[in-house]
């Protein structure tokens, strides 16, 4: 069994913000696979289905970004999901808009959602799919305002493509492993 958690913040005011790209990928993947993400449990909205022959939980933690690990830990503990079968999808300001980077482990890199997950799992060994959202051009720009801001008209087509690729990379990870996905999708 796999847990695929897209990170974001609940509430309409956060829809389509840079920080919520993980939620967008979960919605896209759920639609593609015919999985209804409507159940509420373990501080998340989630749905269950299959990818290949594997059972999969698609989850959108509702704890706000900084406490995402609580939800991930509760799913992992209840379903006995090993860390290597946890896939986290999140925004990354260190990557230009639309770039994808898959990693099997690593630090939080300043991302509060990842910090929470690492803390709650007592491990940094879980797969993460990082989606580049770029960084603010103005160095004086408040980072929180930037990641909670919406994409520009120019960024939307690029990000639509990266959302599709992120969903494909989830399927590749589950069917053929993280290394195969890294070879195909890291750019």
Topology:
Layout: E1 2-6, H1 21-33, E2 39-41, E3 44-51, E4 54-61, H2 68-79, E5 86-92, E6 100-103, H3 112-121, E7 127-132, H4 143-147, H5 155-176, H6 178-185
Parallel strand pairs: 1-4, 1-5, 5-7
Antiparallel strand pairs: 2-3, 3-4, 6-7
Helix pairs in contact: 1-5, 2-3, 5-6
What's the total number of strands?
Answer: 7
Q: Helical element count? A: 6
Report strand %: 15-25%
Largest sheet: 7 strands, mixed
Mean model confidence by pLDDT: 93
Order of helices and strands: EHEEEHEEHEHHH
Strand order of the largest sheet: 2-3-4-1-5-7-6
* Uncertain regions spanning at least 5 consecutive residues: none
Helix content: 25-40%
**Helix vs. strand class:** alpha/beta
Question: Oligomeric form of this entry?
Answer: single chain
Q: What is Rg?
A: 15 Å
What is the terminal separation in angstroms? Answer: 28 Å
The 3D shape can be described as globular
If you had to describe this structure to a student in words, what would you say it looks like?
- There is one protein chain.
- With 187 residues, the protein is an alpha/beta fold.
- The chain is built from 6 helices and 7 strands; from the N terminus they run E-H-E-E-E-H-E-E-H-E-H-H-H.
- The protein has helices at 21-33, 68-79, 112-121, 143-147, 155-176, 178-185; strands spanning 2-6, 39-41, 44-51, 54-61, 86-92, 100-103, 127-132.
- The protein has a 7-stranded mixed sheet with strand order 2-3-4-1-5-7-6, sandwiched between helices.
- Helix 1 packs across helix 5 (155-176) and helix 2 packs parallel to helix 3 (112-121).
- The radius of gyration is 15 Å and the shape is globular.
